[in-house]
Amino acid sequence: MKFSDIQRLLQELDTEPTRSLGQNFLHDQNLAQWIVSSLDIQPGDHIVEIGPGLGALTEYLADHDIRLTLIEKDGRLAAYLKERFQSATTSVFHGDALDFDLRGLWGHGPVKVVGNLPYYVSTPLIAKFTSPLSPASRLVFTLQLELARRLNAEPKTKDFGAMTVCVNRRWKATFLRKLPASVFFPAPKVDSAVISLDRRPAHDVCPLDDSVFDSLVRRGFSERRKQLRNTIPECKNNWPSIVAKLHVPETVRAEELSLAQWESLARICFPASAQSGAEMFDVVDDQDIVLRAEPRDTVHVNNFLHRAVHMILVNSKNHILLQKRSIWKDRNPGLWDSSAAGHVDSGETYQDAALRELREELGISSPPLKRIGKLTPCKQTGWEFIEVYTGVHEGEVFPAPLEVETAAYFPLDQVSDWAARCPADFSPVFLLSLELLSKYGSLPDPSHPAA
Predict the structure, then answer these.
(1) What is the value of pTM for the model shown?
(2) Pick from 385, 388, 206, 415: which is nearest to 323 by CA?
(3) How far apart are the C-alpha atoms of 55 and 73, rounded to whole Å?
(4) What average pLDDT is seen over the chain?
C-alpha cells in the first residue's frame, strides 16, 4: 500500500488517523511484503492480524492458502476491511484485541500472529498472545524500538529486564530489523522495529512453576541497583551456597544472571517436582480384578493393565472444561484433555481417585459426579481400564503447576468440531471419552447436579 493509497482511502472513508488508537499506517510495500514473509506461512496456517488498519499487510496475507482472522478496534476501518476482505476463509472482528477470546482460535490449523501493535498496549498484547491459552507458534510484531530491544536484550545490559527473562523462558525473541518513522503515516515520534517470537520446544523449557518463576524474576528486577540477595530475602541465609552453584559472586545483581541462571536459581530456591515413577498402581487382569501392586514406571514400561479415571465438568452455560496437559508430562504432553484425569492408586476405588484428581489437578472440592461409562484397555487408552464421569462446576479452578498448562471452558459443539478437524490436538483417551459422552446423550443439567 503506497502513501497515495492511504491518503485516498482515508478521504473515501471520511476519516483520519486517530492518535488515541495508536494509528500509524505502513506505506512501504516492500516492507509489508517482507513482514508477511517473516511469518513463514505454510498451506493450512491460520494467520491472526492485530490492527490491520487499511490492509497494508492484509493484501499480501490474502494471497496465501490460509485461514485469516483480522481484529480491528476502529469501527470505521473494520467495516472497510469486511467489505474488502471478508470471505469463507477470512473473518473480520470489530473489537479490542485485548478482549479477543483466544479460545475461538483453537481448531482451525496452526496459528501465527502478526501486527503493527499500538505502542501503548504492546506489552499486554504480548502477554496475552504468549499466554498458555494462546495457540500461536510464531508472533511477528512491529513494536516501539525500545520495547523490541528489551525483548531481545542480553544479560549485563540496561535493556535486559524482567520482561526479557519471563518472555524468553517460553519464547525465543529475535530482533529482525529496525524501521524508521518515515515508513508510517503519520510518522510516529520514535523509531520502530520488527521482532519475532517463536515458541520454544518442550525440551528447551526447564520444568518450573511459571507463577513462582515470574514472581521471583520480577522481585529480583524490582530494584535493579540492589544486590540480588537483598531483593529475595527468603534465600539470604543460604546465599553463599546458592551463588556457588550458579558460579556468580555474592554481590550479583538481577541483570547479571542469564535466563539459564535464573531458572537454576528458581529450582534451588523453590524446588518443585512433577509426577513420580515410584507411585504404586494396581495391576489388574482382563476382567479388572486386582492382581498385585507395581511402581508406575514398571506398569508403563511393561504395558500392564491398570486403572484410571477421566472427569468432564460442565458449567451453567453448558460449556465443558478442558485442561491442557503440561509439556513435561510423560504421556500426551501439551495436548488438550478432560477436565481432570489420572491413575487410580493402589488400594483406591475409581470414585476415590476421581475426587482426588479433581483436588490435585484443579484445586477444587469435587462436585457430585455421575459415571457415564467405562473404557476397556487398548493401546489408545494406554492399557488402562478408565471410568469416565461428568459433573457440574462453577467458579475458578486452580491448575496444578507442572501438571496442567491451563484450563478453560469451551462450548461442546466447538470441541466436537475441533476434535474432528484436529484430533492430534487432544489426548487419545479424551477423544474416546468424548465419544462416550455423545453416546450418553447429554451433559449434566447444571440446575440438577449429578448424583
Answers:
(1) 0.92
(2) 415
(3) 13
(4) 93
